[in-house]
Design brief:
heterotrimer, A alpha+beta (156), B alpha/beta (390), C alpha/beta (420), A: 156 residues, alpha+beta, five-stranded antiparallel beta sheet, three-stranded antiparallel beta sheet, 33% strand, C: 420 residues, alpha/beta, nine-stranded mixed beta sheet, two-stranded antiparallel ribbon, 16 helices, globular
Chain lengths: 156, 390, 420
């Protein structure tokens, strides 16, 4: 008996989930679809406008109820550009970042597009913290965060 | 007044991308067995167990179940066992749970075990992506690497940190790992080589990133009375704590500083009566999964001013011959069995205090710090270990 | 390299929230360190209405709602809490590092918080340890249940990929294996199991928070579909969405904050786990529960549980398991679980009512059911259980099981709560 042979059992998990978006994420996603508009909620205690909207403010620990529309233009607060392919994740290169929309106090995570990302040395000059970006809306919108295709640098 | 608690035993394993030679329970057994031999204790001497892992990096849900009897026969002996899981800080949280188990007065000798087989998952980033909110943040391809890359782009933007500074972190840790037989990546790396590795997530290159490792760690905590019977070199717990930041990545856009860690450090230093950490701490084992993080850790832990982490490293102050050696083990950037990595940091700090760190020993360690970060960089744990009884 | 003043000493203004917080201060011992464990009590309770689904609420809002109620129950603010311990199984929740959401929803933002990846009663145990150490005074503990994933499929992933997983074993099959072994050894009848169902579902009618609030008849229980022999559909719990939160406090703090009717002292606590190998243990003998009870009884000074405990909330993961729990908890002698249910001793009005809340057969929060048992037992001790109140409760017992793999390697916890 060959005791040196080591067996590897291959497996792939396929677990279906259904995540309730609840009232807040639902309203946000529906507004993306039907109004091409981004909404946040205002915390009644600290008054911050929280985007994406959520049922409660983690800091103040109070329920949020007031809806506030914010701009679809904003400032890139942080980013990275990925060049490595990962199983099940987007095809590289892709830039993802945090965009603080005008009128919001927190940033929304999204893709940064409309920039040639193929060469990191060139891309890092094209994508910069502090730059102004605007939403590029999809024609066909499904009530999904990707109803905004990406944010691109504001055309001057 | 809380009980005095000491770390009396450390059990490490061989680490590698794949430990194809053994099954998961055998890996856990290896760590536990090493900790038991370290202390000359038997499974019956263990009053309670805390087990840490981050699900489902091993292709298992709740691996504590399959591993239960590797934890000093906890299942067959019907021992109290508690599973802890807090992302990357799991190991640090498991150490804290071990500590509180003894400090509570309910138990005298407690085994803390953490194990992980990251190598069994084909791509850990896909698992990490599932920690993000499915309605808002999941589609953007974020895993731990991208968040660390965002820390790096911000630090470069605000403080002028360079790709060379990042490479220097990798180089120093690889140099340290050469002294550590339990490290996974053990090869000499130069700055030029590090800079030439392929781009993963701008500005992090392959050399800036941790590997996926299979590995485990087991520690034994004991009450004062028991500790002094078990060993002549206990590592006393002088301070400990953890902190949890809010969920949303976009709620904290100041990625160039780690204010969560700074806040925790302030709390723990205050309780441990540490006033000048750079002078008072003799060695620090911080959780550097990505090169940029060690720079941020220096700054948040008060080893230097904000924005000066790169300079501190370049000065040699944190090398083996410096005044505050950081990560003689080579840190997480050389070995990352995720859920166990935080516990390994505590174990390495304890070995330094005990004077048993062999080839990676820093001379005359009286006070050591162990750190871990987790989640989307919002969780931290700290533990301060001391040679002198607190 | 010049290191100037401490860079870590940031101005408090940079984190305005932390001002309100009472940082847990680690106090190193000086002098004699022969510390006694601090006394700990449950002082605040909050739970949501438990339902089959909650499409109007996103994941963490359910936990927020229960937490908010627990804080209001004791008149405290998030800022008064020293430490937060949450619970749950990430794969079930479909969120890796689920405490990223659940800890802030439990009031944990910028606090010293941790997670037991167990049934919520273990979060209570961990919070107990933290307060007993004297290092923390107040704690918030939460447990939750969601029905967003296939529980049995995920349960199958708890098993090793070589020997057991390929056989399609999951929680329900192991519980059925155990129940069948119990039936075969002691001649427990289907009618006796059905009687547990009738009792608990009947009790659930009195509980406004319960998920299933419809009585079932003995015939209805016996005619329900066989799921996994000997378990029928009504012998098994539903999958419920909801959350429960408890505020724990040390004796020192209680003197300052709590009113007397809102205290349930933890006088006994114990937990223990089973082996992974099904063949290595007698399936009919729940040794881990026996061990957990032994430890908790010893601590609380309980010698004769039937006489000395006034009400029990046990984790009836199936109706058969309630009978097995009677035996392990010393309410029945070995093999006599069926006789005890037949005698009516565990009915409301019996010598030791079990599950006046309706138990897990009416409300099953995966990873929150055990903590809910503790909450219900505490309500009984406080005399606040309303229509489901057992009169004159001085001492109550709560039992929870951390059982993502069903009977295999299950961990049991027992908590004794008292008025004085």
């Amino acid at each position: 008996m060959n005791t040196e042979e080591l067996i590897e059992v291959q497996e792939r998990w396929n677990i279906p989930y259904r995540h309730s978006a609840g009232r807040f994420a639902s309203r946000f996603l529906i507004a993306l679809r039907d109004e091409k508009k981004v909404y946040g909620v205002r915390c009644p205690r600290c008054k911050r406008v929280l985007v994406p909207p959520r049922p409660f403010c983690e800091r103040c620990f109070v329920q949020c109820t007031e809806w506030v529309g914010v701009s679809d233009k904003g400032t890139l607060e942080g980013f990275t550009i990925s060049y490595q392919a990962y199983v099940g994740l987007p095809t590289p290169p892709y830039a993802s970042g945090l965009i603080k929309l005008d009128g919001a106090d927190t940033a929304l995570m999204h893709f940064v597009g409309g920039v040639d990302l193929s060469d990191p040395q060139k891309a890092k000059k094209a994508v910069k913290i502090g730059m102004r970006v605007e939403a590029v809306w999809k024609e066909e919108r499904l009530g999904h965060i990707l109803d905004i295709e990406h944010f691109r640098p504001v055309q001057k | 007044m809380p009980r005095r608690v000491a770390l009396v035993g450390v059990g490490l394993t061989k680490t590698a991308n794949r430990r194809k030679d053994i099954t998961y329970p055998e890996l856990t057994f290896e760590a536990v067995n090493n900790a038991l031999s370290f202390t000359h204790l038997k499974p019956e001497d263990i009053d309670a167990v805390v087990y840490g892992s981050m699900d489902p990096f091993d292709g298992l849900s709740c691996p504590e179940k399959w591993n239960v009897d590797s934890c000093a026969s906890a299942g067959v002996l019907n021992k109290p066992l508690m599973k802890i899981s807090t992302g990357g800080t799991t190991g640090g949280s498991t150490a804290l749970a071990g500590y509180y188990n003894v400090a509570s007065g309910l138990f005298d000798v407690v085994l803390a075990v953490a194990s992980q087989r990251v190598g069994e998952t084909i791509d850990a980033q896909q698992v990490l992506n599932t920690c993000l909110e499915p309605c808002y943040e999941r589609p953007f391809g974020f895993g731990a690497i991208m968040i660390a890359a965002m820390q790096a782009t911000s630090h470069m933007h605000y403080y002028g940190t360079t790709e060379e500074d990042l490479a220097r972190v990798a180089v120093q840790n690889h140099e340290h790992a050469l002294n550590n037989p339990h490290a996974h990546l053990r090869f000499k790396l130069t700055i030029e080589e590090a800079l030439k590795t392929r781009m993963i997530s701008w500005p992090l290159k392959l050399a800036d990133c941790c590997p996926s490792s299979d590995g485990a760690c087991a520690l034994i905590f004991a009450s004062e009375e028991k500790a002094e019977k078990i060993t002549s070199t206990p590592a006393w717990i002088k301070g400990a704590g953890q902190i949890t930041d809010g969920y949303y990545l976009g709620d904290r856009t100041w990625y160039h500083e780690w204010d969560t860690l700074a806040t925790l450090a302030r709390r723990v230093y205050k309780s441990a009566k540490i006033y000048n950490p750079f002078k008072e701490i003799d060695v620090a084992e911080v959780y550097t999964a990505f090169s940029i993080q060690q720079i941020l850790e220096y700054e948040a832990l008060g080893f230097c001013e904000k924005g000066e982490g790169g300079k501190l490293l370049a000065s040699g102050a944190t090398s083996m011959n410096g005044s505050l050696p950081v990560c003689p083990s080579g840190s997480v950037i050389c070995t990352n069995p995720i859920g166990a990595s935080g516990l390994i940091r505590v174990g390495e700090a304890a070995l330094q205090v005990m004077g048993k760190a062999e080839g990676r020993q820093v001379p005359n360690v009286k006070l050591a710090l162990a750190h871990a970060w987790g989640a989307t960089i919002g969780f931290h744990t700290l533990m301060i270990l001391s040679k002198e009884k607190p | 390299m010049a290191i100037s003043r401490q860079a870590f000493a940031q101005k408090e203004e940079e984190c305005p929230e932390s001002k309100k917080l009472r940082c847990p201060i680690f106090t190193p011992c000086d002098g004699e360190a022969k510390a006694m464990s601090k006394r700990v009590a449950i002082v605040g309770i909050g739970q949501t209405k438990h339902e089959g689904s909650k499409p109007r609420q996103i994941y963490d809002e359910v936990v927020f709602e229960a937490t908010k109620r627990a804080l209001e129950d004791v008149g405290l603010d998030r800022g008064d809490i020293d430490t937060v311990v949450v619970s749950g199984w990430d794969v079930n929740d479909g969120r890796t590092i689920s405490d990223m959401y659940v800890a802030p929803a439990s009031g944990g933002y910028f606090k010293d918080s941790s997670k037991t990846a167990e049934e919520g009663i273990f979060a209570l145990a961990y919070a107990y340890l933290r307060i007993a150490s004297g290092l923390f005074d107040t704690a918030l503990v939460t447990g939750h249940g969601h029905a967003e994933s296939p529980f049995e499929l995920i349960s199958n992933k708890v098993f090793d990929p070589f020997f057991v997983r390929p056989l399609g074993i999951s929680s329900i099959t192991t519980l059925a294996l155990q129940a069948n072994a119990y039936v075969n050894k002691y001649g427990i009848t289907e009618e006796q199991a059905a009687r547990v169902v009738v009792k608990n579902r009947g009790n659930g009618v009195n509980n406004p928070y319960a998920h299933l609030r419809r009585e079932v008849s003995q015939r209805g229980a016996l005619n329900s579909k066989v799921v996994s022999l000997p378990l029928r559909a009504l012998d098994c719990p539903p999958q419920s969405v909801g959350a429960v939160a408890l505020v724990l406090a040390s004796e020192d703090v209680i003197k300052k904050i709590a009113v007397s009717k809102n205290i349930a002292w933890v006088t006994g606590i114990g937990w223990a786990t089973h082996t992974y190998h099904m063949d290595a243990a007698d399936l009919t003998h729940v040794s881990a529960l026996e061990k957990a009870a032994e430890v908790a009884y010893k601590m609380a000074g309980v010698r004769d549980p039937i006489k000395e405990i006034d009400v029990a909330e046990v984790h009836d993961i199936t109706s058969y398991h309630e009978l097995m729990a009677y035996e392990a908890l010393g309410i029945a002698k070995p093999g006599q679980g069926g006789k005890v249910i037949d005698s009516g001793a565990t009915d409301i009005g019996g010598e030791l009512p079990v599950n006046p809340s309706g138990g897990v057969l009416c409300t099953n929060l995966h990873s929150g059911s055990g903590l809910l048992r503790a909450a219900e037992a505490a309500l009984q001790v406080m005399g606040r259980a309303e229509k489901r109140q057992v009169p004159g409760v001085k001492r109550a017992l709560a039992h929870g099981i951390s059982a993502p793999a069903g009977a295999i390697a299950a961990s049991h916890a027992v908590i004794v709560l008292e008025k004085e």
